Amino acid sequence: MKMHVDVEIKLREKQKELRLFNIFGNLSRQRHLASNIRRTCSSLRNAYREMLRDSVIGPNTMPLDDFVCNVANRFSSSGFGRLLLGRPVIAHIAMLRRFALEHTQLLDRACEPDEEDDDDLQPTQADITRSANTATPDYADTEDGSRPPSAMSSATSRPKKRKRATPALSSASQPKGSDFWSMVEKWFVARMQPEQFGRSWSSPGWLKYIDETLERDYARFKPTPVVNPFLDDFRPSDAPANSTGDGLGGAHGPSSSSGAIGSMAAILGTL
């Protein structure tokens, strides 16, 4: 799972727009940014895993379309649910739901943040020398008018980070590479082998599997019927005898929906 690598590349490409120009070029700050990106990506993966679990198991299961909208609204910068997600993305989400149902024993295996040792967080002597000898223009001034601390000062004044002790018997103490998302990745790698479905999504194996997955999902998680109570409370005797279509005036008035008080579309548009 290398999502943090893609995020860092995007941030580097848009460093001027995001005002990160005082991060890239300073190795000490880049290390802190990379560490925060790893933790954030790990948190998002765990949140997505829990959403997958709750969408297919328990009292809050939901149809595929509803889940796709929830995923898009939470994780997509554009949102708008299924409107902006094509069939490949919807099929991928459906396959993840099927994997979750077929491997329920993996659903509580959270992925831990990529923790670094203290030596990895501390800049090397070469980094300190390079940062000290490199001018850093365009740095934002601090509130008191002073310049931000240099890599040398941050390296010497920062307290040592305590290593987190991992409980011997906890849900996160599974062997490395056996968490939910690692197993998902292994499953896709196996299915993409030539003797299985192959690497092309348009191969007969993948097309059959995806169609079968979608059919199973729609059959198992059916949408809740939407009941309109006003379709049943209408009595034929309530309709005027001279009513013609959806006109508002009968024989003595306009016979179309655009009567004296406006068209039906205009009326509904004002509500």
| Count of strand segments | 0
Task: Quickly count the helices.
Answer: 10
> Main sheet?
none
What is the ordering of alpha helices and beta strands? HHHHHHHHHH
Helix percent band = 40-55%
Judged by helices, strands and strand pairing, the structural class is mainly alpha
Low-confidence stretches: 115-158, 162-172, 247-258
Strand content: under 5%
Overall outline: extended
Task: Note down, in words, how this protein is organized.
With 271 residues, this protein is mostly helical. Helices cover 46% and strands 0% of the residues. It has helices at residues 3-13, 27-56, 64-75, 87-102, 118-121, 125-133, 151-157, 180-191, 204-220, 264-269. The chain is extended and about 80 Å long. The protein starts with a helix and ends with a helix. Mean pLDDT is 74; it is low at 115-158, 162-172 and 247-258.
Describe the protein's topology.
Layout: H1 3-13, H2 27-56, H3 64-75, H4 87-102, H5 118-121, H6 125-133, H7 151-157, H8 180-191, H9 204-220, H10 264-269
Summarize the structure.
This protein is mainly α and 271 residues long. The protein has ten helices and no strands.
